[in-house]
Each structure stands twice: as structure tokens, then as C-alpha cells.
Amino acid sequence: MKRPTRLSAGEKLVLTANRLLDGQIVWRDAFGQWLPQIRHAETYDAESAELALENAKHNAQRDGVVGVYEVAVQDGSAIEPVSVRERIRAHGPTVHPQFATEA
Amino acid sequence: MNAPVGHYQYDQIDRNFLQSRIEEFESQVQRRIDGTLTEDEFKPLRLMNGLYLQLHAYMLRIAIPYGILDSRQMRKLSDIAHRYDRDYGHFTTRQNIQFNWIRLEDTPAILRELADVDMHAIQTSGNCIRNVTSDEFAGAAADELVDPRVHAEILRQWSTLHPEFTFLPRKFKIAISGSPNDRVAARFHDIGILARPGVDGTVFRIFVGGGMGRTPIIGQEIFDAVPEDRLLATLEAIVRVYNAHGRRDNIYKARIKILVQAIGIEAYREAVEAELALMNPDHYRLTPETVAAIRARFAVPELVAPDNASEVLAQQRIADREFDLWVRSNTHEHRASGHIIAVVSMKPAGGIPGDATSVQMKRLADLADVHSFGELRITHLQNVVLGHVRQDRLHDLWLSLREVGLASANVGLIGDIVACPGLDYCALANSRSIPIAQKLGARFGNADLQAEIGALSINISGCINACGHHHAGNIGLLGVDKRGEEFFQITLGGRADQGAAIGSILGPALPEDDTVDAIARIVDCYLGKRTAGETFLDTLSRLGDVPFKDAAYEAV
Amino acid sequence: MKLFDLGARASNFHEQLVPLDELQNFPDARAVLLEAEHDPERLKPFLAHLELVVLRFPIFRDGRPFTQARALREYLGFNGEIRAEGHILPDQAAFLKRCGVDSVVLSEGSDPALWEKQLHRFHEAYQRAVLPEAPLGVGLRVKPN
Ligand code: SF4
């Protein structure tokens, strides 16, 4: 799969998916665990992301996740996705603040 | 409890079928979890049971056939919202309800709960014939020629797990109406059916190849008067041609509308006629006995009202101006004297169009029991209808609605906004559609202002898939992505009724707040330029786009 | 090759399966392979000799073979065996059968017990299909065999 992983300065990649059983959005940490909070996510540069992605996809069934892909983030003091879509995924729907993802 | 009015009443055969379907789904979930089914294989199977994987979680879309449900079913939905979701549900533009925070592992249990009240989620998604929609005023409206619900039910049954048509090139939507005032957007469906009385019983005018999405197309008439006994044969032939020849190489070109456009309506009609000539008419005949047997499973409400019901209502309208305003916009004439159709707006100013909390659902069920034989209808504009209200009790109903914040007097007015879930929930979206709907709703929230503006529909879609039907909105908004920013493209002049038209793009897309301001200026422009009695669409067609375009972009 | 029978007709193995486009070169052929894009009408001149028509599913989501099977039975009066092969799921067993398919080629690792289960999952259907099926209750419903 060829996706445009051209990253701007200060941007990194993280891996995300949904948990198979409950659909919960999860992010992959440095130990290959899938966790609900983006702050635990391991960040990769473009090359290392490719390998990690392949690996994560390979183990998706075993790990109980579905739809693994990479997301561009600002790599500042807190990890923050670049696109609105991924910010909504990371933090919850903007129209229901009561359903915000626990930080 | 008496048999529910308004929809088909299940018997043991129907209930057994639902149980088998649930067992099947449960085994599919199991196979998915143990890896026997890949996600690619499981996806179409779960979709045909209404289960999507959306942005934050699984979403379950539950069928409300032809939009009609009874109070016990509504209470069940309320209960499911409370126990399995986050205490609310969302009514859709296809008269269904969806829950946004469902767990895959809970789904078989939810389907069992639904089956307890004769409900299911079958074919609310997937590349199959979807839940059939119909007129929200069916069997009640004064302007109706034929009650379409019996035939809607026949279509529901016929299309359920159809052996040949469960793996079509793309989704397939059918709507049926029996009124000259098209309230189902028949010309925007893969198949739109208008029933009317013929010399020898009901006949059906059939449109094919309409649709919204990336390529909005108004459906064309394929047959003017199909007799009832040939209805299923004709539909069977239309879908058969599509299944064999619809494109499967490109999902954006896979709908029947593309095939009809490619070969032309005449060629399509010829192909259908060729099928019909080969088909054994006896095998496909819809017999009067079959129709009668299904009709017999619909309980009919006994409509009795005191002689002075209309007078009582007239008095109450004079006495209570706010009530009068609500009656003007939120009711429709009933065929029976002393009765009226009430539309409960699910569009409170600043709220989320189509959302209902579990408490509101329960309250609506209670009110349906008191005022409308326990019957409720979901409209394709995401509102709720109580179909058979006594005129002398309408004021009571209104007072009760007001207590739960459901008395917005805006049906058919600018506040009655249709919006898809957009980027807050939908995995395919470009932009959010709910926040801008909330802003517009708040901007035009005042009931007097809305009454002054008059009939005007706003439809908002978060992407080109057009679930918010923006092409058919008098004012349509389409969310587009401009380098990661949410922008909105404005279209004017769309309509979904018998004068179906696709809105035309006004100019460059604008950011959210600028779009709200631009719409406010468009409305001001209309108010300034209209002549007495003109609706927004009237003024637009008299003056054309230009003055509105100038107004919209003047400050940008 | 493992075969699974959907209905009463027992499947028969055929040595030679001729693709539709080559059929005219093999006048004695008894078995033909149809791709999903083929019009079954093209089999008309050969039907008298044919004992087996194999319909190939390129992917289980491609529903054209269902229409092909029905056309073979309904329009062409084909009375021989219809078989489905390619990417198909046990979840499609009853659909195939009701459209007139007799047997399927089981793919590697496919579990016949699962096919058996799915084949008999539903005891009620809501529309008439190719097979003769008895009415069930009132209305449109029938009892699949
Ligand atoms: S229109 Fe687009 S964003 Fe809106 S619900 Fe449909 S697919 Fe999602």
C-alpha cells in the first residue's frame, strides 16, 4: 500500500486501530500494546513506521484489533494529530463533550 | 395490549425467522473472533445486520420499516439506548434509528432484545435492498390516494434475504408513496414508486436511477402504470438487469443510476421488458389474496372524535398564540374529521438534528399511547409523527411536548435542518456537519422569525456521499476538505418533492463561520426581494442565483 | 477437489471443464465454465449436450452468478448440474441453492459442517425462488426445502 507519508518538519507517525470486540479506538505503544490514550503512542519517522505498520497488521488478529493504519502527529510536548479527523478520533466527538476520551 | 396499528403484525413464522437470523449472526461474530472469517469477509455480513465500524466505535442501525413503530418498540429502543449505548439514539434520513457507541460483543444480545418486540437490523446497510421507506403521513393524510404501507411491507418481505439480490453491485434504496405530494423523494431513489388508484385496482408509477451521492441524478420514469399483480415481477426484472450489468469495478460508478445513464432509460426499459417476457408471470404474480393476507395483519385505528373537536382546536389556537404558531408549522391535515397529524420536531434550536435521549424516546412512547393509538412514525427529515391525534386534544399534546423540550415550531421551516452525522462520528467524512447545523439552528431559532421566513429547507452533508441530502435542500451545504480545514460548499435550489431538482453550486466553499454568515445574508436577500406570498424557492427561480451570490460573497 | 452438495442432485465429477469461449471447438464437451461477466444466453446452442455448468465467483461479494444460475434454470430450462466455485462463503449456501445451484467446490480448509449448518439455518423465506417451495403461513412466505 502506497500512502503519502510525506511528513512536514516536526511531524511524526503513530499507529492506530479499533479494538475488534468493542470498537474502541486504540494507539500502539512502544511495547506493541494497544491503548486507548494517544499519549501512550509510540512515534515513528517515515521509515521505521513502515516496518511497525507491517508488523502491527500482521498481528492484528492475534492482538484483537482491526483497521490498523498510521496517523501523522505533531511531535511536541503532547502528541497531537495533524488532521481534524484524527483529533476527533483521539479526543472524542466535538458535539458531545461529555463523551471525550479520558486523557 | 391491542395489536399495534400502522405496521405489519408479526406471527410465529416471522419471529422464528428473526431468531435464526440472530443465531446466524452470533456464529458469524464467533468466526470473526476466532479468525475463520477475515475482516474483509465479515464486513459485508455485519453490514447486512446493520453493524458499521465508525469513527469511535461500532454503530448499529436498526430498521424501522416504512418508518412506523409502536410504543412498545420505542420503549425498547429507549432501553437499548440506556443500557447498551450512551443514553441517546439518532433518527436517520432513511427513517431508521442508529446507536453510535455499540460493542460488537453486545450486538447479538441487542438483536435478541429487538426481536422481543419484532424488530431487527436486517439490510439497513450493505449492497442489498435496504429498508424500504414510505410517506410519513401514510394512511392518515387527507391528500393521499392510496395507503402505501401494505405494499411497503410486501416490498420489505420480498427483499428480505432475497437469494439473488443480496450481493448487488452497490446499495439499493426503494421508496414508495401513495400521495400526489411526494414526501418520500421518489425521484431520488434507486427505485421510486408512486401508487395511485387505477381502473382495476392499484397501479404503480415507477422511477429508476435516481440518487444523490457523488453524481446526483433525478430518477426517470420507467413505467407509468404497473398493475398490482405485476409489481413484484417488474421489480424483480429491474433489479435483475442491474445485478447482471451494474458496474463492479468502481464503487463510485456502481449504483443503478450510472447504468441507467450509460445505456439510457429506453434501453433499460427494453432490457426489463425482455426479462419480463422470459419470466413466468404466474410464478411472480402478486395475487389479491396475498395482498389481502398481508393487509389483514395491519390493525386499523378506530377514529372517533367529538363533533366539536375542530371548534375546540380553533378556540385554543385563538387563545394561545404560541400554540397557534406550532399548529401552523407542525401539523398536517388528516383524512378523518376531528383528527390531525402532529409532527414532533427533533430539531430544537442549537440541538443535534435527529438525536433523541432515552428519556425523550420513552416520553414519546407514552404520548403515542395517549394520543395516537400507540403509533409513531419517523420521517425522512428526522422528525417524529403522531399520525392520528384528536383535534380537541392537540393542545394537551403540545403542552406535554413542551415539558420535554420537543415543541419547536419549525417543521418545514429553516430550523428543520437535516444533517448527517459528519466527521464527529462518520469514518468517511470531510467535515463536521452537526456543529454548523447547531449554529444555524441557533441563529434562526426564533419561532416568529422562522414563520416569517417560511418554507425553506437546509440540508447538510459531511462529504460527497450526501447522506444529508444536500443536493435536494433549498439551501444545501457540502463539507469539503481544504488542506485539512473544514470548508462548506453552498448549493441553492434543490428540492426533493414532485418538482425534484438538484441544487446548483453558488460559488467557492467557505469556512464554517463564514458559511453561517453567508446563509444569513442569503436569507436577508430573500426577505428583501420577495413579493407577497413568495417562498424562498419562488424568489430564487424568479431572480436566479446572481443576487444571492452577490449577497453571500459580499463580505468575503 | 472437494464438492459439497446443496440439494437432492448428487454432483458428478467431470474430467474436462471447457471455458465458454472455447466451447464451439469442443462439440462433445459435457461441462463448461462460465465467468461472472458471461451471458448464460450464450450457452443456448450447447445446452442439449451439457451436463454441468460451473459458475465462478471472482469474490464472494460479486453476486452475478446468482442471476446466472436463475437465468439458466428459468429462461434456458437447463436441467443439468449447476456448480459454484471460487471465493464463496458458507453463509451463501441457501442463496445459492434457492437460485438453482446444486453443488459447490469447497476451498482449502473450508468446513463442510459449517456449510451444512448454514444450508439449513432458515426454515422460512419471504419470496419465491427457482426451486418449488411450499407456501408457509399466509402472504409471500415459503418453506425452503
Ligand atoms: S454524507 Fe459523508 S460524512 Fe455524512 S454520514 Fe454520509 S458518508 Fe458520513
TrEMBL record, chain A:
InterPro entries: DUF2849. It comes from Gluconobacter wancherniae NBRC 103581. This is DUF2849 domain-containing protein. It comes from the Bacteria.
TrEMBL record, chain B:
The keyword 4Fe-4S applies. This is Sulfite reductase. Residues 58-116, 352-403 form the Nitrite/Sulfite reductase ferredoxin-like domain. One of its GO terms (molecular function) is 4 iron, 4 sulfur cluster binding. Residues 125-276, 457-544 form the Nitrite/sulphite reductase 4Fe-4S domain. It holds the Pfam family NIR_SIR_ferr. Gene3D superfamilies: 3.90.480.20, Sulfite Reductase Hemoprotein, domain 1, Sulfite Reductase Hemoprotein,Domain 2. InterPro entries: NIR_SIR_4Fe-4S, NiRdtase/SiRdtase_haem-b_fer, Nit/Sulf_reduc_fer-like_dom_sf, NO2/SO3_Rdtase_4Fe4S_dom, NO2/SO3_Rdtase_4Fe4S_sf. Keywords: 4Fe-4S, Heme, Iron, Iron-sulfur, Metal-binding, Oxidoreductase.
Automatic annotation (TrEMBL), chain C:
It comes from Gluconobacter wancherniae NBRC 103581. The lineage of its organism: Bacteria, Pseudomonadati, Pseudomonadota, Alphaproteobacteria, Acetobacterales. This is Oxidoreductase.
